[in-house]
Amino acid sequence: MNKTDDQTVAADSTAAVSKRKTKKKNHNHPYFYIAPFVIVFLSFNIYPILLTFYYSLTNYTGLGGIENADFVGFENYARLIGDSFFYEAFFNTIKIWGVNFAIQITIAMGLALLFSDMRLKLKGLNTFRALFFLPNIITIASVALLFSILLDWNYGSLNQMLLTLNLIDRPINWLNDPVLAQGWVALIGAWMWFGNTFIILMAGISGIPKDFYEAAYIDGANWWDTFTKITLPQLKPILLYVFITSIIGGLQIFDLPLLMTDGRGAPRGALNTMVIYLYNQGFSYANFGYSAAIAYGLFIITIVFSAITFKTMYRSQVKVKKGGRK
Amino acid sequence: MKNSWKLASLLCGAVLMTACGSDTDTGSDADGDSNGGGEGSVDLVINSFTDELAYPIEVFEERNPDVNIDLQIIPTENYVDTLRPALESGSGAPDIFTGEIVYLLDWIEQDYWMDLNEYNVDEWSDDYLDYVWELGRNEAGEMKALSWQTTPGGIYYRRSIADEVFGTDDPDEIGEMFSTMDGLLDAGEELANAGYRLFPDEGSIAPYTMGNNPEPWVNDNNELQMTDARLSYFDYAKELRDNEYSALAPAWSPAWYASFNEPITYNAGWEEMAEGEETTEVFGVSLPTWGLHSVLKTDAQATAGDWAVTNGPSAYFQGGTWIGIYEGSENKDVAFDFIQMLVNDEEFLTQWVEETGDVLSYKPVMEEVAQDYSDDYLGGQNHYEFFLERAEQIDPSNVTRYDQRLDQMFGASVGAYVDGVLTKDEALEEFYAEVQNAFPDIEVPESN
């Protein structure tokens, strides 16, 4: 090896070290990229989540600072487990969400099938899509106010209309009956959100290859066959998404039932959902410690429901795939 | 490249630090240098849930051109949740803020408002209605908040109906009839016989079911006081409903508002209605002072001039706004000047009464105004005189921090009983369970 060779080797090795250094330095860059998100996430998500847990271990009243609150350990959680009001709120939430989801998915699926039907070839999809989505962009407060006026006992338009048409003899006190009030909240919710579900389902259906349907029709399949054998199985991931997002949103239903009646769940606690209960314990009755424990209870319930949904649907999907391989 | 990353990091850091440490919008932190209105001027920030203070601010700014006041109105439903964190942390807290009776008794025990006795306001106490003054004082005797207004309630009624049914529309004579619960219900019967309804709903009698010796909802031992008088609300409300003295128009509903103007439909509760009886006219309603301007004068124009106000079986008050200076304010002197004008300046308060018709807690001006006053809407009645006399009878020692929420819960339970959904015992049991759930520290009586 002569001198020139040595120089070349040295130069190569310097270049390699420098390259490695540059490469190593470059590895730091992604941290900068994600820093804004991480900082915001830690400050506005993780910190409040941890702080809420700490609150849940105290009898904090929201007055005079957390330092004046007593540490009560898991007392709030013990109370939550035996709290009949919480269970009532849980079942109210499930009832309202269940009816709401059933109506919402039925209407959305029906419309999605109608608009995606290859033989009907309905026109004006964009217009209808916008129309269906319209209730979704109205603020919930406005919707609640609008419906509480429409459903007013003596002066509501609905009762006036039904009386005029002689469909009822006396006005119905829609929002004073627990079952009717829950039904109305579920129905209004479905009216507000079916447009969103419709758009998601339409996107899912339009992603299913048309060949499947054509082949099925050639083989003599009818509408029901294509729906149950092609559309539904192909839509499963989308339905899973719709179901999970719906249940997470449904378990947190708050503003509509809060604003429809007295904000405390009237009539007879029928509209007292879990989040309204949480809100009132904290902000109306100044039991922030207990309210924080309810928040964690709600969190666990949401996780359990999502996990069950995911497991059930994922398992059946795996079964389908396994069956397909055979 | 290296430099640009350093620069970006520095900028990021600077933005975050500015965001976290910014106090430019906090009135309380405003010092001499940060007063933005020019040399020697002062910026005051006031937080309130109503726009009532717009007029006094206008007058104060006219009188003090070097003071700029920023009135920030936060809707009532968000007021506590928005303001309390600022008051707890001191960040973004105003110089002056108002408080409602609902949470007043909680707030005066905190370090939110300063003790106004630093300005010797106790020297003014003789000039104010006792209950208004005392409710602003905390247990340690510090004067945390003052109020320019008083909000006693009464029964507003239609003169034409009174004249037709009782042969008189004179508030004193009608008040004499209404001075006991029995008298009130007898009047209800007479009105029902003539085809009228005493009140729009059963809630109108709630303020009068405290009895002659009212007890606070919760006593010093944190025990719920379910007196016989309070229990009587169940029976009175039921009597009102069953005998058709009320018109099934719940407070604040469209039917309730309509009942002040015209006959309303009420055939929603009784099984059998005779032909032609689908509507009825309501005689009166229980409302506090502010109901005259905020409810009747705005929503019952068709019956203007046909109203009068008189007493129910007992004195009560509803609502009210108190005001004080933030403990950490840097502009306390100017803030106090404003509060002094608002609650203690006779010239201003006289203008204020003329402008708003508000009933003041400051007696010298009220007594002066009440000497010779008549309100056209109330058929020429001098309601100031009436309300002052009612306000003098209110005992502040019966007011507790739980009142509004307990009243709401109790009203809902009574409503369930009146609707026939629950028996009285069940309704009472439900009420106790709700109280226990909302306020675990309160000891409730044993259910039967």
What would you note in describing this structure?
The complex is a heterodimer of chains A (326) and B (448). The N and C termini of chain A lie far apart (66 Å). Chain A has a single domain, classed as MetI-like fold (Orthogonal Bundle). Chain A has 326 residues and is an all-alpha fold. Helix content of chain A is 75%, strand content 0%. Chain B is an alpha/beta fold and 448 residues long. Chain B has three domains: 24-150 and 320-371, Periplasmic binding protein-like II (D-Maltodextrin-Binding Protein, domain 2); 153-201 and 246-313, no CATH class; 209-227 and 402-448, no CATH class. Helix content of chain B is 42%, strand content 10%. In chain B, the strands form three sheets. In chain B, strands 2-1-3-10 form a four-stranded mixed sheet, sandwiched between helices. In chain B, strands 8-4-9 form a three-stranded antiparallel sheet. A three-stranded mixed sheet of chain B has the order 5-7-6. In chain B, helix 2 (54-63) links the parallel strand 1 (42-48) and strand 2. In chain B, helix 14 packs antiparallel against helix 15 (383-392). The longest helix of chain B is centred in the N-terminal third of the chain and has 20 residues, at 2-21. Chains A and B meet through helix 2 and helix 12 of A and helix 1, helix 3, helix 10, strand 6 and helix 16 of B. Chain B: Residues 1-21 form the signal peptide. Chain B: It comes from Alkalibacterium subtropicum. Chain B: InterPro entries: Bact_solute-bd_prot1, SBP.
